[in-house]
Structures are given as structure tokens and as C-alpha cells.
Amino acid sequence: MMLRTFAALGLCSLVAASAIATTTAPAVEARKTDARASDDTRNVGIDTGTFGTSLQLPPLMGRPEMKRTVSTEVRPATVVRKKPTDQLRIPTVSSGATNATGRLIIKFNDDLKARASMAAGARAVSLTGHDLSAAEMTVARFGGTMRQLVPMPATKLQQIEQKAFNRSNRIQPDLASMMLVEFDTPLDGKQLLAAARQLNDLDIIQWVEIEQPLKRASAGPPPQGCDPGNAVICNRPNPNPGAGCWDGPGTAA
Q: pLDDT tens digits, residue range 24-36?
């Protein structure tokens, strides 16, 4: 008797399993097709047909929802403020010797869109129509010229600025408005400082820097002879005629 009962139960289970396999497969495939069509795998359901109600898969079983971590807010540019004019000084080394190249680096305000040639000249123009003559006259008064500091075409500079903006969502400074001011006749420290301060006083100038020689990254001994990039060997512009650098009193090296 018990054997027949177990046999009957086993037969019922087999029939039920067969029924689920045959009757629910089309429904499941249909729901999958619908989910794929809507491109929303987070809402896939299973229809159990006559053997129960529809089952909804938990959201974690579908495609995870990606959170946006990058802010879309456009942030203003970081503005480097000019140093007060009376605080400008000729840079020196620890021994007290002058550590300046004899040139100035200036930057016009971003909104002026100031432009100059990459070759030394007396003119600078504003793409937004502002008057830059005050800076031109100040540079000319000291016998100087202006040229674009970064030796790259405008399109390349714009690409750099755009790439930086895409990474930071921050408005970038106008790189082309940085100028190198050079003097045909080298200025002494007093004259160079006077030129820097007069340019710094102009409202159209964002900042002024008295250029210093680049420091060498090499840990080895300095090269022999005169080296304008090394303050230990040669730290002053050449006051003598010629293009050589100055090792000290006398003629050019």
C-alpha cells in the first residue's frame, strides 16, 4: 500500500514538472523578448502560468544603475592675483647676488584676449577691442619688446585649454595672453624693477613676474665654463657686447 502511495506521489511530481516545463517556456521567452525590446533588464519577470502568480526579479539581478560622479557645474577660473607693486623685488640667491634673466613675464586680464606675435615686436592687440596702448607705451619707454610667451599656435593653445576644461569643468586662463618682455639694451636691477612696477600698476595687467633662470634638475656637477642657466657659474646678464654670457668683469665669454 505504501509503495503505491510513493509511486503515485512520484508520478504526480513528474507530471507537474513536465507541465511547468512545457507551459511556462513560451511565456518566459516572451517576457525576455519584451525586456530586451525595452532595453531594461532590471525589470525581467517570470510568468509561472497556471501554477502561480508572476515573479519579479529583484533589481540587483538586472543591470546596475550607474551613478554619475562627475559634476556638470561649470566652475570659474582660478585667478592668480598680482603681487602689490611695492612688494615686487629683484630676485636674489643666498649670497645676495641678483638672480634675474633681465626679462619680464606679464599676463593680461583674461577678458581682454590680448595677443602678440611669437616674434618680438612693439604691439599687442585685444581680440575683444580693449585698449592695450598703456602696456605698449610702458614697454617702449624702457626700450623693450613683447612676444607671446608660449611658442605654440593659437589652435594648439585652445586645444590645451579645452582638454583641461573637459577634465575639470573649470574655465581655463587665457594662455595666449601671457607675454615675454625683452629689452634691446640690458637693464640694470633698478631699471628692471621700475619697468616691472610700472606694468604691474596697470589695470589691464593681471600679474607681472621678474624672470629667473631655470634651475637644473640634474644632481651631477655643473658643466664647466659659463652657463646662464646655473646661478653658481653665471647669474647675471652680460653687460658687454655680444651674445655670450658673463663670467665676471672683463669681456664676454
A: 555 555 555 555 5
